[in-house]
Amino acid sequence: MICLQLFWEFFKTGLFAVGGGMATLPFLQEMSAKTGWFSLTDLANMVAVSESTPGPIGVNMATYVGYTTAGIAGALSATLGLIMPSLVIILIISAFLQAFRANKFVDRAFFGIRPASTAMVGAAALSLISLCMFGVGKFVKLFEGGVSISLAAVLLFAAIWLLSNKVKPLEKLHPIVFIGIGAVCGILFF
Question: 28 with 50: CB under 8 angstroms?
């Protein structure tokens, strides 16, 4: 039964998370609150691991949640649930590609989807920043008072941002180097 629930939850996520893996974050936050399968801290850790491992972030997170919830069967169910909507939609679109390509309503719909996807990714980024820097799950909670800032996280962010964007010899380094630096600092100082 849990595998069907995993499939259904990730199917809904895959159906409506337009804009890539980061667009799944608002859906995963809601799933966390609704099901209790993982905490917001687990979600932040999933994002960190998914960003630093090969493959799409959404698929990595679906596989992780499925595996931690119901083992290998859960991982398969969640992953299939996430990719199934895209697979079906792509098959339908490819069958009617010429008709869709020239349709002004489809073109306008995709024009409207772009800013909505951008807003979803931006909201997810703000939630992750608030979780990592301030230890709260929702950005809005920052304004409710009583929130302490993680000075170490802010300093680490600032240092890596400066190194990767302002130090000329380091600007050309692969992002995995900075992810590794962050991981080492996390292990050593936290």
Answer: no
